[in-house]
Design a protein that fits this description.
This protein has a single domain, classed as Lipid/polyisoprenoid-binding, YceI-like (Lipocalin). It is 11% helix and 42% strand. Strand 12 and strand 13 form a beta hairpin. By secondary structure, the protein is mainly beta. The longest helix is centred in the middle third of the chain and has 12 residues. Helix 1 packs across helix 3. It has an 8-stranded antiparallel β-barrel. The N and C termini lie far apart (54 Å).
Length: 234
């Protein structure tokens, strides 16, 4: 394996467990605190997610003394499935998301350009293909056993203009509860929700891959951009 290629091959140990100044640390989920299929759905307006306008984006960074030999990576998906119910009191609203991990796309040129100078150098096709294989393989997301990521809202708190969402997140067979800031805007029959936060792989049982005795590795922290666009159902 060429050193310059190695972080491309390991650049996908990813996803959701958060630590930022504006979001609470994730906690192990307990049966008393969560329900992956809620029995009670609040009264409100139902919205359908528009996949082509919605996106989950993961920014994966190189680490270690030899980090200069690797690449940072942008991993994204528009295949977001689920439902949103907006209650009259916005804090009573709920949403559920499913993201098939096989739908992730790695290092698309436009996405890398949008993320700026840290992503300016585009890995070659071989490196991108290797990253994708390793991302879906047993050592990272293990798509064969855990084909999707699930995110379910447990509670919303705060003013309408600055809400915090407490989430139940299931990834790689591990569930966590975490609170993140979200921005929600309604425009006619269209709903927009966005969030930006940082995640840590190890909290979901994923060990960041490394080579060269740890000299070149993937950073445990991954930045997450989430955008939901949904249309009111008639």
């Amino acid at each position: 394996m060429k050193p310059a290629l190695s972080v491309a091959l390991l650049g996908c140990s990813l996803l959701l467990a958060c630590q930022t100044p504006t979001a609470s640390l994730s906690q192990p989920a307990t049966a008393a605190a969560i329900s992956t299929d809620r029995a009670v759905i609040p009264a409100g307006v139902a919205y359908a997610i528009i996949p082509e306008a919605s996106e989950l984006r993961l920014l994966v960074y190189r680490a270690g003394p030899l980090a200069r030999l690797g690449h940072n990576h942008v991993i994204r998906s528009n295949d977001l499935q689920g439902d949103i119910v907006v209650a009259e009191d916005l804090r009573q609203s709920q949403f559920r998301l499913r993201i098939p991990v096989a739908a992730f796309r790695v290092d698309e040129p436009q996405a890398r350009q949008e993320e700026g100078q840290e992503f300016a150098i585009l890995p070659d096709d071989e490196a991108i293909a290797g990253t994708t294989r390793n991302m879906l393989g047993e050592r990272v997301l293990d798509a064969g056993r855990y084909p999707e990521i699930r995110i379910e809202s447990l509670a919303l708190s705060g003013p309408d203009w600055g809400l915090d969402a407490t989430l139940h997140i299931t990834l790689h067979g591990v569930s966590r509860i975490q609170t993140i800031p979200v921005a929600i805007e309604r425009e006619g029959k269209t709903l927009h929700a966005t969030a930006l936060f940082t995640i840590r792989q190890r909290e979901f049982g994923i060990t960041p891959l490394s080579v060269l005795g740890g000299g070149l590795s993937v950073d445990d922290a991954v930045r997450v951009r989430l955008r939901l666009v949904a249309r009111q159902q008639d």
